[in-house]
Amino acid sequence: MASNEAPDIVVGRLPIYLRALTLMAEEGREITSSQELSEKLGISSAQIRKDLSHFGEFGKQGTGYEIVYLRDQIKRILRLERTWPVALVGYGDLGHALANYGGFAPKGFEIIAVFDDDPKKIGQKVAGKEVVNLNELPRTLEEKNIRVAIVAVPSASAQQVADMLVKAGVKAILNYAPINISVPHYVRVQYIDPVAHLQHMTYYLES
Amino acid sequence: MASNEAPDIVVGRLPIYLRALTLMAEEGREITSSQELSEKLGISSAQIRKDLSHFGEFGKQGTGYEIVYLRDQIKRILRLERTWPVALVGYGDLGHALANYGGFAPKGFEIIAVFDDDPKKIGQKVAGKEVVNLNELPRTLEEKNIRVAIVAVPSASAQQVADMLVKAGVKAILNYAPINISVPHYVRVQYIDPVAHLQHMTYYLES
Questions:
Q1: Closest-CA distance of chain B to residue A4, Å
Q2: In this complex, which of B1, B94, B206 lies closest to A1 when CB atoms are compared?
Q3: So what's the ipTM on this one?
Q4: Shortest Cα distance from A13 to chain B (angstroms)?
Q5: CB neighbours of B146 closer than 8 A, spacing ≥ 6?
Q6: pLDDT, tens only, A135-192
């Protein structure tokens, strides 16, 4: 469990720091600073230092952060020293793109089961997996001890799928359907809605 | 331009309110309350009232919010009384899913140009559009006065594409490549990275 009470908004920035640090490490870099991270990420250096201070002492005044060490600490904090098996529900265009996406595995996640309720899609092969009938979801999730799921179904089905997932023991749902879903307090939900991001930006545009 | 100084984080919640209000209006509902919105969205009712108060007086103590009125006001605030033409760069699996996605048009956005630099993809048809050679991007964007773009290219190309877009007059970029891009201060960028959302949630999971 979390060792302290870092605000959720701070936790949400850790993956951004991790992404930047991982890239720097891949480039063979050894030391960075809150100033450099600030310039790369558009987050103030004071904010970065304050965010990280919730989780420990990672840098020294004047010498900065050791990139690989800080990267590994953030991975540990985010529980990414293991790979999390993930269920994907919905095999439309988006589900297809997600199932084929090569960016999950290197970052701690592997989609190991894909579900749909469309007989035309069931049995299709994608990235070494087979699309399975949605009604097998409870058994598969229990067998494979899957607690993380991605929902890529139409809005009209999202709540029903979320209910199935919660009942099957899922504790974290990434929801692509543009609708808010209700889950018990012990289940985490994050949303991805490109429209919301676009609308956020048009606020600042001149018509 | 923005008529006041609402914090960006508040602006970012307006699309979430708009989504909920739009759904309620479609259901024929007339009145809602910050309490009901709170339950649906998992944002405290005090926060919702405070957020909305940045933009005007939309509700009356004891009677709540008129759904259609508040929806239309938020649309106005977010500059969604018009449809924004959007350029999509990158026609891989994700680009294909985005180009086919029916959720943009009803919410104020229309992908009217799709670009890729792969000769095998150029000329393909998708949702009534043709995939166009990336080197035609500057001319197309100018001709069609496009100021909003979605980047769905691999990380290695994202900065170069962003530079092209900025040079062509784009002021808002939704970036799906899992890498931070540098743009001038007058250009807005939002990121969509499913890995970051998943990592945010695993923080709270027991291993």
A1: 11
A2: B206
A3: 0.95
A4: 8
A5: B85, B86, B87, B112, B113, B140, B168, B169, B170
A6: 999 999 999 999 999 999 999 999 999 999 999 999 999 999 999 999 999 999 999 9
Instruction: Select from B194, B197, B207 the Cβ nearest to the Cβ of A82.
Output: B207
Residues of B with Cβ-Cβ distance to A107 under 8 angstroms: 195, 198-199
Reduced to 3 states (helix: H, G, I; strand: E, B; else coil), residue A53 is helix
Chain B positions touching A98 (Cβ under 8 A) are 194
Among all residues of chain A, which has the CA nearest to that of B176?
A: A194
In angstroms, the separation between the Cα of residue A144 and the nearest Cα of chain B is: 14
Task: Closest CB to A15: pick one of B93, B171, B199.
Answer: B199
Which residues of chain B carry a pLDDT beneath 50?
A: 1-3
Spell out which residues of chain A touch residue B204, defining contact as CB-CB under 8 Å: 2, 11, 171-172, 188
CATH assignment at residue A54: 1.10.10.10
Q: How many residues does chain A have?
A: 207
Rg (CA), chain A: 19
Asked if residue B201 is part of any domain, the answer here is no
Rounded to 5 degrees, φ, ψ at B124 are: -65, 150
pLDDT tens by residue, A34-83: 999 999 998 999 999 999 999 998 877 778 999 999 999 999 999 999 99
Cα–Cα distance measured from residue B165 to residue A191, given in angstroms and rounded to the nearest whole number: 27
Closest CA to A89 of A147, A139, A132: A132
User: If you measure CA to CA, which chain A residue comes closest to B93?
Assistant: A97
Q: In this predicted model, what pLDDT tens digit does every residue of B23-60 receive, in sequence order?
A: 999 999 999 999 999 999 989 999 999 999 999 988 77
Could you give the number of structural domains in chain B? 2
Can you tell me the distance from the alpha carbon of B200 to that of B207, in angstroms, rounded to the nearest whole number? Answer: 14
- Indicate yes or no: CB of A19 within 8 angstroms of CB of B193: yes
Note down the domain range covering B20: 8-77
Q: For residue B19, what is the nearest residue in chain A, using CA coordinates? A: A179
Q: What is the pLDDT of residue B2?
A: 45
Given this model, what pLDDT does residue B5 score? 80
pLDDT band at A2 (very low <50, low <70, confident <90, very high): very low
Q: Has residue A206 been placed in a domain?
A: no
Residues B106 and B184 in one domain: yes
> Are A53 and A73 in the same domain?
yes
Predicted local distance difference test score (pLDDT) of residue B4:
55
